[in-house]
Amino acid sequence: MNILDRSDLKTKTNLSYFQSEDIAKLGWVQHAFLTRQGGVSLPPYDSLNLSDKNGDHKECVSTNKNLIARTFGFDPSRLVLLDQMQQDQILLLKKPIATLPSPLEYDALITNFTNIYLAILTADCLPILVVDQKRKVIAAIHAGRNGTALRITTKVLTKMKEEFGCSSRDLLITLGPSIGVCCYEIDEKAFHPEWEPFSTSKGTGKWMIDLAQVNVAQTKGEGIEDEQISWINLCTHCCSDLFFSYRREGRTGRQLSFIGII
Ligand SMILES: [Zn+2]
């Protein structure tokens, strides 16, 4: 697995972000895992907040969206932001016909269209970006605790195979920053036995969960090998300068991760 850390942070016109080198070098995909830095929103949404559902001013969110689109070279109207539901519904945008439904009550998207930028918003949950290098298909996944329990990552990879004939060996997968095993405590009643290899019991009806590793295990169950995976191994709860964290801050912003075929 290719593990990225703080030293891999990049900057472009005041925006800080992480990228998978493997995806970047393909040349036909644009993607980034943005941080909270470089936007115009005021505290507690400072500053690159992309959610207009948490109390931030719509004009600030819109300016932030425009900043990102301009920096990465696409039209802001091409960014598809979901009404993330913490469930496992997958939006499929497949050529030749595709219209955006409304509302967008999904937690993952898959497309083979060019110039559609799939977006995931997070503040502790795990964003995952997927590329099929051969068939030119991309996906973006919002994997929180519930989505992970519903095996949303497994379901997205399965759908890519069924709908587009994708093969596991052609996929590149990048896991973005999320709350780490250092900080992610959950109650026994929300715990799933299959998470045990990636979790530590605190012995008091509480578990510390490694959300990223649980999702890595889901990709491996679908035939993905270590060398196909990149992981930005930074905890959103620990790194307050870089990331919004719902657990740490409560009322806060959401950082954007996106991917699109140019
Ligand atoms: Zn942490």
Quick recap:
Helices cover 20% and strands 28% of the residues. By secondary structure, it is an alpha+beta fold.
CATH architecture: 4-Layer Sandwich
Q: Name the CATH homologous superfamily.
A: CNF1/YfiH-like putative cysteine hydrolases
Distance from first to last alpha carbon? 26 Å
Percent strand equals 25-35%
The coarse silhouette is globular
Number of strands: 16
Small-molecule components bound: zinc ion
Major sheet: 7 strands, mixed
| Fraction of helical residues | 10-25%
Structural class: alpha+beta
Please render the helix and strand layout as text.
Layout (H helix, E strand, L loop, with lengths): L1 E3 L5 E3 L2 E4 L2 H4 L4 E6 L23 H15 L6 E3 L8 E4 L14 E4 L5 E6 L3 E7 L4 E7 L1 H5 L2 H13 L6 E5 L9 E3 L11 E3 L4 E4 L1 H11 L7 E4 L13 H4 L5 E7 L1
Parallel strand pairs: 1-15, 5-8, 6-7, 11-15
Antiparallel strand pairs: 2-3, 3-4, 4-16, 7-10, 8-16, 9-10, 9-11, 12-14, 13-14
Bound molecules: zinc ion.
